[in-house]
Each structure stands twice: as structure tokens, then as C-alpha cells.
Amino acid sequence: MTRTRTLALTLALTLSAGSTLVFAQDHHDDHHNDPHANHFVKHDEWHKGAKISHDDWNRGQVVDYHTYHLAPPPRGYEWRSVDGNYVMAAVATGVIASAIVASSVH
Q1: Which option is the CATH number for 40-100: 3.10.450.160, 3.40.50.150, 3.40.720.10, 3.30.450.20?
Q2: Which member of 13, 46, 70, 88 has the lowest number of beta carbons within 10 Å of its beta carbon?
Q3: Is residue 101 a contact partner of residue 85, using CB atoms and an 8 Å limit?
Q4: How far apart are CA 80 and CA 59, in angstroms?
């Protein structure tokens, strides 16, 4: 019985130490795929009434306007984050209704 307890205790300690090491690992997050990372490109051509290119629109990520305190988009429009900018445009046509363009290039 003592040997079984010792084995169980050793196993429990080993498992808990192993899980602690997993949490202690450094977290390297280089924002390679984060559309909201600080990769600013100034787009002066993005303004109300202009069209965002199909390529720019497609590489942008849909943004939850609540999270970023943006105006709710009308039906058929959505906010996208592209190059550190926020653009609300018509999904079907790419016509821009609003744009918050990066003020500086990094």
C-alpha cells in the first residue's frame, strides 16, 4: 500500500510540475497575422465616396465595431481593418462610407 501511495504521489507531482512548465514558457507574439497590430500604412485615397480596391478589401479583417467604438455600419456595409486603418465600405461595391486613416507611418 505504501508503494502504491508513493507511486501515485510521484506521478501527481510529476504531472503538476510538467503542466507548470507549460505555463511558464515565454509567449512570443510577433503579430504576424494580427490585422490590428501596429503596421500602419497611410492611405490618403481612402475617403467617403471613394472605392477601396478589391485586393485591399479582401486582405482586410472584419472588425467588431462595438469593440473599437466605431459607428454601426448600415445594412450592406462593414468595417474592415486594413494596414492599421479602419474602413467602412459597401460589401458589394467597395464604396467607402467612412474611413479612419492612420495619421503616421511607422
Answers
A1: 3.10.450.160
A2: 13
A3: yes
A4: 9
pLDDT by residue, tens only, the chain of 106 residues? 577 776 566 655 555 554 443 344 443 434 444 444 456 888 889 999 999 999 999 999 999 999 999 999 999 999 999 999 999 999 999 999 999 987 654 4
CB neighbour list of residue 83: distance below 8 Å, 6 or more residues apart: 39, 40, 41, 43, 56, 102
Place of cell 500602419: 40
In this prediction the pTM is 0.60
**Helix residue spans in the chain (DSSP H):** 2-24, 54-59
DSSP lists the bridge partners of residue 62 as 80
Which residue in the block uniquely carries the three cell numbers 478589401?
Answer: 57
Amino acid at 74: P
Neighbour count for residue 27 (Cβ, 10 Å): 5
